[in-house]
Amino acid sequence: MSTASCLLSEDQFKCFICQNVFTDPVSTPCGHNFCKNCVTENVCDDVPFQCPVCEKMFFPRPELEVNTLIAELLDEFRRSALRQNAEAEIPGPVSGNLFTKNRKIAILCGMVLLFILSSQVNHSPPLTEETEGNAKGSMEDIWSCSPAKRCQNLTSGQNWTAVGPLSASQLEQIFTEVMKKETPRLLIRAELMRAKHYAVDVTLDPDTVHPKLILSDDRKQVSCCNPTGNLPHDPNRFRYLKYVLGEQSFSSGRFYFEVQVKGKTNWTIGVAKESVSRTDRVRLIPRSGFWSLTVRNQNEFFGLSSPPVPLSLKSGLEKVGVFVDYEEGLVFFYDVDAAALIFSFTGCHFTERLHPLFGPGHNNDGTNGAPLIITPVSIVPQ
After folding, report:
1. Which residue of 67, 93, 105, 344 has the fewest CB atoms within a 10 Å radius of its CB?
2. Looking at domain 213-375, which of 2.40.70.10, 1.10.3720.10, 2.60.120.920, 3.40.50.150 is its CATH number?
3. Are 310 and 302 in contact (CB under 8 A)?
4. Is the Cβ–Cβ distance between 131 and 167 less than 8 Å?
5. In terms of Cα–Cα distance, which of 102, 127, 104 is closest to 114?
6. Closest CA to 15 of 5, 7, 25, 6
7. Quick one: 275 exposed, middle or buried, by C-beta within 10 A (0-12, 13-18, 19+)?
């Protein structure tokens, strides 16, 4: 297929309800697009929203804001149509080829952005404004690469008859590069955004905290070390491992929480089954009831399976997201700020309640004195 020959049509910008070109286009969480007035008129807030295309139900009703990406694509399509009409009115091979070349570039931009948008259809929620901005930024990166430069530089040449065939080849190559580069990143971002919709409120359980650890008054932070280590005896308290469990536990469904690790050189985060040993020295591996991620010496990352899996991560990790799907046996760890997957456990067989697990590590003379902080989950990317 020649990319340059696949022209966008007006049908691709038509609302399913009114069958007219979009006015203030909005996107539903399931990825379908409508005029804002068409999909929001005559509805009640206390009634579940049903997508007119796939009939999927949403409650509470989603906030449908104008999708600026589609609106901009529609504007570009209209401008491209005007240029096409202008081309027909301008005589001469040079003008015609120049307009053809510009139109192909505009069409490619639209196709690439539509591709990026469509990659989100099966991964709710829809693209946010930041994701749209990142997509535009990525387009700028692609245009700066060598094939795009060669295509762009054609305007400065004198042999205009070469514009058509060269543009088709170059644009198809650029389109392939965009798809290869953007698809994995945007799919992970979409999965992270979906995971955030299962956010739970986690507080630290003072009955399980090791005597050397210190909890904040709101039980959202834990650090080391308590100089006295005097805490009441409790059978649930960790006596050997310097850890604390979340007070909340889960035996079904999905849950997600985030932990700030900024300023720390050693820490462990994950989930543990309710019956893990509190008094013995045990290995933090799935067979012992632990599914966790750990960091040593600031930049030595390990997924604690058996054997541990060393991980190569960029420095500067500040916030970790933990997502669990109980029935599917999944535990995912995300770099929240980079919207990247760090490590995952799959094929887990959970048979009892799971608790969030936190280990702030030793103080190390103050170099690891910062606390682990359970932070509120923001659905909008930072």
Report:
1. 93
2. 2.60.120.920
3. yes
4. no
5. 127
6. 25
7. exposed
User: Do 21 and 34 meet the contact criterion of CB atoms below 8 Å apart?
Assistant: no
User: In whole angstroms, what separates CA 290 from the centre of its chain?
Assistant: 25
Question: Phi and psi dihedrals of 43, rounded to 5?
Answer: -125, 155
The Cβ of residue 59 has, within 10 Å, a number of other Cβ atoms equal to 10
Q: What stretch(es) of the chain map to CATH 3.30.40.10?
A: 3-196
To the question of domain 3-196 being in CATH 3.90.79.10, the answer is no
Q: Report the alpha-carbon distance of residue 130 to residue 142 in Å, rounded.
A: 18
DSSP 355: E
Strand 309-311 to 300-303 pairing: antiparallel
Q: In what order do the strands lie in the sheet with 330-335?
A: 213-215, 221-224, 372-375, 254-260, 319-325, 330-335, 340-345
**Ranges in the chain annotated CATH 2.60.120.920:** 213-375
Task: Determine the length of the chain.
Answer: 382
**Contact (Cβ atoms closer than 8 angstroms) between residue 199 and residue 256:** yes
